[in-house]
Design a protein that fits this description.
This protein is mostly beta strands. It has a domain at 1-44: Rubrerythrin, domain 2. It contains one helix and three strands, in the order βββα. The longest helix has 5 residues, at 54-58. The mean pLDDT is 76.
Length: 95
């Protein structure tokens, strides 16, 4: 059940009331008995999960394996250096 905050416009009395959603709005102030008791607009707390471990048991995928990572990067093969008679070539055209 939601908790609603009420405030009296006449005397300033404030109180939280636990009410069902279909309960009628309270109008009479419990302190001064005037019909100036108004429901206040408050920030909703929203959906809140408290405690530890609820996600570990409810949403954990059992038996899921993590993808395997390669042990190391593939080795780079070194290209032969160009010769002095054929600059930029990887093999000597003169031989």
């Amino acid at each position: 059940m939601p908790i609603y905050t009420y405030r009296c416009a006449s005397c300033g009395f404030e109180k939280d009331h636990l009410q069902k959603l279909n309960d009628s709005v309270l109008l009479t102030c419990p302190q001064c008995h005037q019909d100036t008791y108004e429901k206040q607009v408050t920030a909703a707390a929203g959906f809140l999960l408290k405690g530890s471990g609820w996600y570990a048991t409810d949403f954990k995928e059992k038996g899921r394996k993590t993808p395997e990572k390669p042990d190391k990067a593939p080795e780079k093969t070194e290209l032969p250096r160009s010769c002095h008679c054929c600059p930029g070539a990887h093999t000597c055209a003169g031989s």
